[in-house]
Design a protein that fits this description.
By secondary structure, the chain is mostly beta strands. The chain is 8% helix and 39% strand. Strand 6 and strand 7 form a beta hairpin. The chain is globular and about 40 Å long.
């Protein structure tokens, strides 16, 4: 576990950050952050509604149950969007950055500070101006407290 003061190996900080600052600082492109709300608690999972992603619900395993209605920040790395996952949402692609073996697709939402960045590999890549369905792997999602920035586990 990466320590709260941001010390640890670069890989441990990337894979297991303890706060939103470190999660957003380590990695390129940076982690995507979305406002979310805890919709309900089932088993050991909080179901998070994410308005910016079409109000999809993402189940996130947590050790402590947050109350329904709790506001959270959901973090997803660009590489963790995957069209094969069942939790899916459409995105309009505004810009494609082709870098050879990898491309980055940018979806810009009016009124938001940062675009949604999705990493694409392989031959089937989105086109600018097109819409694509992206899948979200719930096991790769990180939750943060928007007030303190600390990771919720």
């Amino acid at each position: 576990m990466a320590l709260l003061n941001g010390t640890g190996t670069p890989l441990s900080l990337y894979e297991d950050p303890d706060n939103e600052f470190v999660a957003g600082f380590i990695g390129s492109p940076r982690m995507n952050f979305f406002d979310g709300v805890v919709d309900r608690w089932e088993g050991n999972q909080a179901w998070i509604t994410v308005p910016r992603l079409g109000n999809i619900e993402v189940p996130v395993a947590l050790g402590t149950a947050p109350r329904d209605g709790t506001r959270v920040t959901l973090g997803i790395r660009p590489k963790n969007f995957d069209p094969s996952h069942l939790i899916r949402t459409p995105l309009v692609i505004d810009v494609i950055e082709n870098l050879g073996g990898v491309s980055y697709a940018y979806s810009i939402t009016e009124g938001e500070d940062q675009p949604v960045v999705v990493e694409w590999r392989g031959k089937d890549r989105p086109v600018e101006g097109g819409s694509v369905d992206v899948g979200i792997d719930p096991n790769s999602v990180m939750l943060f407290d928007p007030a303190s920035g600390l990771r919720l586990r």
